[in-house]
Specification:
Order of helices and strands: EEEEHEEEEEE
Largest sheet: 7 strands, antiparallel
Radius of gyration: 25 Å
Helix content: under 10%
Length: about 150
């Protein structure tokens, strides 16, 4: 009897990890202080302080393909205070700004493109009252550092 060869098929798995991550670590909270006229609270006035975060972006796919626009960051101002004394949040508008590694000052809503790497982001916040002064008391607001 003749020898027969048997044919066989097997699936070969090919994996391609294309993980991407943007990690944000808050290093310091900001401190807002009243303006001399008490019509605004801001982190850039004397005695105020910027919030600071470390942002690390890492994407194997971006590295492999040499892409330069994998991540964008922005700092979104809050819609209102998280906490404020009675009447303190009435007629208030918020604006945010930020810097990456001590670079140019950017408006908070304008996204900035990042390459893979680690960056220090400093952010500032201003709360402005349309009329009158801010009532005495403690205020707290939260801006959102967005990485997408």
């Amino acid at each position: 009897m003749a020898n027969r060869l048997a044919a066989a098929l097997a699936g070969l798995l090919f994996a391609a990890p294309a993980h991407a991550a943007c990690t944000i670590v808050i290093d310091a909270s900001g401190v807002m202080v009243p303006s001399p006229s008490i019509t605004s609270l801001n982190s850039t006035g004397a005695g105020g302080g910027s919030a600071r975060a470390t942002v690390t972006t890492n994407s194997a796919l971006c590295s492999i393909l040499g892409l330069r626009n994998c991540y964008r960051i922005s700092v979104v101002a809050p819609a209102g205070f998280q906490s404020a004394p009675a009447g303190g949040g009435t007629g208030v508008t918020f604006t945010s700004s930020y810097q990456i590694g001590g670079g140019a000052l950017l408006l908070g809503l304008i996204p900035t493109t990042l390459l893979n790497g680690t960056y220090t982001v400093t952010a500032d916040l201003t709360a402005s009252r349309a009329s009158g002064v801010f009532p005495a008391g403690d205020y707290e607001a939260v801006s959102t550092l967005r990485c997408e």
